[in-house]
């Protein structure tokens, strides 16, 4: 059941708009884009153990519930008027789905990803307010640990580090984030290790591109190495998220 308590437990907020990261005036198109971005952020393969993977899979399933409600004009109007939730799973996700059913659901929401889509997305994302927001969030979340920041921000490589640091330095100057010791006093050897690893991954990505004609596979493989467990940036998203829903355990 989708309730305020469930949302608060999972996302730290009971507000559906906050779950998706949009304001109440957001258009349907903006809500859909926010859902897509949030889905990428919640990819279970970013987690290093099975318990966290299960938790993030559950997060995606409840994120989908929130999206389904806000993407339905009548349900959204009712929610905006009353601001309360009390919906059975059957009303949104339905009964437990098979992986194939989840995959079909994902494809019904988003068109197939092409290499042109990836290139366009990367071009629009880098240097955008969305990227700045992600850098700010991960810098704060990891208290200035650049290994984790560089691993978590989408589509960045070791070549982007000066640019990412520029964003962080401006955030610090504007007093939007704290000045963490892990960032300001980072051992130079850590950055050298990131650069060495990044060059190795870039070579592997180039080799992959020579062996495969698809740019999306090369990008996915590069991201897989950087995230250690992430098998693909886009292609495997459905498979990893789309598991049958599970009932939340109540204490």
How would you summarize this macromolecular structure in one to three sentences?
The chain has 251 residues and is mostly helical. 65% of the residues lie in helices and 0% in strands.
Give an overview of the whole structure.
The protein is mostly helical and 251 residues long. Helices cover 65% and strands 0% of the residues. It is globular and about 55 Å long. The two termini are 16 Å apart. Mean pLDDT is 76; it is low at 88-95 and 227-251.
Can you give the helix content as a percent range?
55-70%
Number of helices: 15
Structural class: mainly alpha
Largest sheet: none
The overall strand count is 0
What average pLDDT do the residues reach?
A: 76
Uncertain ranges: 88-95, 227-251
SSE string: HHHHHHHHHHHHHHH
Strand content: under 5%
What global shape is seen? globular
Radius of gyration: 19 Å
> How far apart are the first and last residues' alpha carbons, in Å?
16 Å
Salient structural properties:
251 residues, mainly alpha, disordered C terminus
Outline the fold blueprint.
Elements: H1 4-11, H2 16-20, H3 28-41, H4 50-70, H5 73-82, H6 89-92, H7 99-109, H8 115-125, H9 129-141, H10 146-152, H11 161-173, H12 181-184, H13 188-211, H14 215-226, H15 237-241
Helix pairs in contact: 3-4, 9-11, 13-14
């Amino acid at each position: 059941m989708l309730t305020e308590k469930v949302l608060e437990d999972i996302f730290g907020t009971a507000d559906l708009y906050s779950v998706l990261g949009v304001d109440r005036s957001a258009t349907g198109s903006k809500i859909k884009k926010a859902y897509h971005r949030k889905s990428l952020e919640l990819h279970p393969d970013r987690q290093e153990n099975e318990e966290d993977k299960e938790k993030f899979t559950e997060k995606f399933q409840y994120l989908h519930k929130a999206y389904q409600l806000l993407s339905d004009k009548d349900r959204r109007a009712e929610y905006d008027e009353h601001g309360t939730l009390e919906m059975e799973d059957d009303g949104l996700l339905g009964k437990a789905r098979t992986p194939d059913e989840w995959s079909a659901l994902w494809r019904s929401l988003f068109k197939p990803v092409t290499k042109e889509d990836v290139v366009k997305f990367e071009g629009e994302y880098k240097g955008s307010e969305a990227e700045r927001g992600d850098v700010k969030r991960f810098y704060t979340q990891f208290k200035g640990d650049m290994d984790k920041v560089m691993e978590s921000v989408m589509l960045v490589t070791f070549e982007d580090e000066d640019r990412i640091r520029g964003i962080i330095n401006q955030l610090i100057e504007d007093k939007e984030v704290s000045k963490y010791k892990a960032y300001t006093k980072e051992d130079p050897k850590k950055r050298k290790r990131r650069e060495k690893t990044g060059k190795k991954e870039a070579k592997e990505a180039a080799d992959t591109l020579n062996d495969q004609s698809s740019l999306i596979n090369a990008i996915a493989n590069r991201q897989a190495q950087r995230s250690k467990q992430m098998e693909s940036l886009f292609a495997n998203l459905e498979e990893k998220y789309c598991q049958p829903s599970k009932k939340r355990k109540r204490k």
